[in-house]
Amino acid sequence: MARRKFDSKALAKGLFSILVFLVLWEIGSRSKTWITAEAFSGFREALGALGFNKNYLPWVGAIPAPSEVVVAWGKVIVDPGYWQSWWMSGARVGGGFFAAMLVGIPFGLALAVSRTAHGIGFPVFELLRPIPPLAWVPASIIFWPTQELSIAFVTFLGAFYTIVINVVGGARSIDVRYFQAAQSMGSSKADIFRRVILPGTLPSIVVGSAVGMGITWEVVVAAEMISGGGSQSGGTSGGGLGFFIWNSYVGGSYEQIVVGMISIGIAGFISSELLRHFGKYITPWLRLR
Amino acid sequence: MPTQDKQPVSPDILLGILKATMPFQVVSDAMLRRIAAISWKVSYRAGDTLYEAGGPADDLYIVVSGKIDHELAPGVNARRPMKTLGEGDVFGWAALLEKVPNRLAKAVCTEDALVIRINGEELLKTFESDPDAGDVVMSRFATMITRDYTVPDLIAQLRGIHRKLHARDAQGMNVTLYRVSRWLKSPRPYLMLLGLSIFFGCWYLAVEVFKLPRFREMPGITTVVTEWLNPNPVFGLSLYTEEYYKHIAVSVWRVTQAFLLATALGVPLGLFLGWSKGVKDYLFPIFEMLRPIPILAWVPIAIVMFVATESAVIFLTFLASFFATALNTMLGVESIDESYTRAANCLGASKSQVFFHVIVPGALPFVFTGLQISVGVSWFSLVAAEMVSGQYGLGYVINTSYTMVRYPTIIIGMITLGAVGYVTSAMVRVAGDYMMQWRVRELALGAR
Amino acid sequence: MSGQPGKLPGGAPTRGAIRIEDVVKIYDPGGASVMAVDHCNLDIAAGEICMIVGPSGCGKTTLLNAIAGFHEITSGRITLDGEVLCSTERPKSTPGSDRVVVFQNGALFPWKTNLDNVAFGPIMQGKLSKAEAREKALSMMADAGLNGVEHNFPGEVSSGVRRRIEIVRALMNDPKVLLLDEPYRALDSLTKSVMHEALLEIYYKNKVTIFFITHDLEEAIFLGHKVAIMTSRPCKPKKILTVDIPHPRDYGVLTSKRFRELIEETNEAVHEEAVKAFQSGEKEG
User: pTM of the entire structure?
Assistant: First the structure.
């Protein structure tokens, strides 16, 4: 039961390396300007000889510098369209995720509890699982009447597989002795389900949903980019963060792409932190470990 | 010197006797009947010697009535060599041991006795025909020999019994057949068939028979299958077209490159992150800063960074795999029990020897978990990347088929993608099992 | 015959004398100092089996770790055959193959076969070639009655066999001292008794000094020349008992009168410490 000490040394090291990272990035992307200096003419030739563009450093030179990103962020932060993107993506993630929990947990429990259900359902599940969720996007667009629903469906799929797999695995790994103990104390089948299987599966549900949440963000962004924003009436930046990125790319404002990437990173981080805390709250017996 | 020669026993009587005998209690009736067929009953008078130590170990004995004195030879190192056996006791188990052709004990009848004799060789053969049940009996024998006969030194030999059964059961083709027949006898294949037919039946009925709203738009199962198997496909893609294989090859090649690159970079990075706290303190924050950004959010920036779409697609596919591999490798190193590194230090291993003999093999199970995830996510991001940009590849097939209204081809693409993805991750699993024989064997024992 | 190691068959052992002088160990987790070892003094003669008995979590393992070189000490001195392992000036000794540890939960590398585990030490130190080390390992395993499991992985053999292999792995390095950290804790009593006899047998052949931590008084008196009963945290010897039952011993000893007398003599001291430890609520391990 090691009390976690606040490790200020590690924090300082971390901040230092992030700073170095940002500085290198800044220098790298500003290579567009400094590389033109006479002193670097040999270097430019070398780049050209290797098949790279002579006008900037390979890769990093093509992306906007952190300072430019900050400036661009300052501009969009006052734009309500930007915040609407947050809201739309968040709502889609939330919707798909909860739908996946709502369907996935009972489905997983059914597979875990009943041999017959497992025998019938699991092969179909395993047959569909290797198909990446994004491969469903076109089929989903054809099937669902609105684009919003089709995005929701693909998002749902992304989290669904992970949650089901974790529920089944979790329920199966419950120690047999707990069942025996419950039985010997006279529990009915319903009691065992409610008092042993449900709480016993909870830790893996928490783990599964954390992973599922990550996948949900991946899928939402992709679905928004592929389907072009969802709401056709949404205008330039009303289609979620994925569309915000795509739109910035099409519009040629590369700084905004990075702003969008960071925004999604932050959004994903916040949602998984929330989930983690909620998970800790509902599994208090794991807290002491 | 038996007073009576070997007499056959009626199966029903023997069934009762065997069921009261510790090692056989758990055996199914069907198998007991087969054992009955190789059993004989023999009576002895008080004073008869059943066998001497050093004599051939042929039969296994079960006492039905009477008393037998059983004395283990000094070489066996039993803690209590003398033992008087009565009804239900089993002796003569040397007949079941590996590498022990001779009797380890002397058995003398002290009170007129009736015993059952079972030929050891035949019994082992019976067990091998049903390894699962045989194994249970053997482990019960093992318990009996250690507990009732207090012969600890034979522990290794007893293990030998297990291994013998296992080794044979791993080799034999007939065992595979046996497993298949067992599987066919269980309800599982029929439930599976039921599940799959419900799924495909619903698809067929909803789309092609009842033409339900919304489902009507979808390609039906028969359309998809006929298209897939059509030498002259309506929409240009089937098992008979060269295009189809080209798309598969392109996707597989991209995933392979990305996966190998991610493994080559991710595994060493993960090893160092887990091994050295200094490296972790500096690098991990950057790693954690970039990791929450979904791979797809990288698409435009990747296109900008790599002017060639091909490199951009591979970069995106690589990225997700890289994070999964590095993270799991790091966790793997951190999961290694400190005792192992300490033990290696004690035994005189240098720092680099600890790294190669302890850290690397110790992290391997996690590394392979990471690689499994890594293949999965590489297909995931490949599809996305191919859908957004790129030419050729299965993701591209799915997306263009949508825009060009070739709906059955979408489904063909999806199914192909699923199948290819499954095969690649199975390959990683097989490679992992191959490299971690110790783990496979350990788990096989644990699962029993 | 007396219980002294000098009278063992095969001549007196001359190496492996450990001297623990005034050793103090203070842990400092987040500013709260915890004294684990308090001015501990203990002399272990060459070739002696010294049993350290104390309640779980009393700091016995800290002492062992200090000898092995896994932890530093706060002050004091530990010497092996007159050579300083660690002292106030140089608080951490270097782990070495002259003092091999057998761990509580076992530390055979699960990814190496039993044979390769046993051959590990000499190969790492470059003392023997791979083939030579394997050959020596084979013969040592055969000596210890461990034939038949050489090419299995540790996960495939019983825990009792694993412990025996681990001891053989330690002895492959011809150590001066064997440090055993409750090696039989997880074994059932039947297997444990087999292990005790096997350990004694190995000891009679090799006559290496043994520093053996346990919380089982019977085990301690059955095996040891000397039994040091430790106080609960902070740890120091409360009572040092010389077991005057002659070696070689076998299971008959357990029922002998002298054995029961020695148990009675020490039981109270051990129980007292156990109660103290229980009341202070130390977590195991």
Answer: 0.77
* Domains of chain A as residue ranges with CATH: 1-63 (no CATH), 66-286 (1.10.3720.10)
**A219: nearest Cα among B377, B41, C124:** B377
Query: What's the DSSP call for residue A197?
Result: I
Closest-CA residue of chain C to B153? C145
The domain in which residue C275 lies consists of 5-98+179-193+211-280
User: Closest to B348 (Cβ–Cβ): which among C107, C121, C145?
Assistant: C121
Q: Which of B145, B144, B116, B132 is nearest to B35 (CA)?
A: B116
* Chain B CB contacts of C104 below 8 Å: 339
How many distinct structural domains can be found in chain C? Answer: 2
- Chain A, residues 174-193, CB within 8 A of chain B, namely none
Instruction: Judge: A264–B297 Cβ closer than 8 Å, yes or no.
Output: yes
* Residue A288 pLDDT class (50, 70, 90 cuts): low
Do C57 and C72 reside in the same domain of the chain?
Answer: yes
Q: What ipTM goes with this model?
A: 0.85
C206: in domain: no
Contact residues of A toward C, CB < 8 A: 1-3, 5
Give the rounded percent of residues in chain A with a pLDDT score beyond 70: 92
Q: Is residue A198 classed as helix, strand or coil in its secondary structure?
A: helix
For residue C285, being part of any structural domain is answered with no
Q: What is the pLDDT of residues A149-200, one digit of tens each?
A: 888 899 999 899 999 999 998 888 888 888 888 888 888 888 888 888 888 8
> Do the Cβ atoms of C190 and B147 come within 8 Å?
yes
**DSSP string covering C54-67:** --TTSSHHHHHHHH
User: Same domain for C70 and C32?
Assistant: yes
- Using a CB-CB cut-off of 8 Å, the residues of chain C touching A1 are 283
Task: Determine the average pLDDT of the residues in C187-201.
Answer: 81
Domains and CATH numbers, chain B: 7-172 (2.60.120.10), 219-446 (1.10.3720.10)
CA distances to A75, A184, A251 from A237, rounded to whole Å, are: 14, 61, 11
Q: Check CB contact of B342 with chain C, cutoff 8 Å.
A: yes
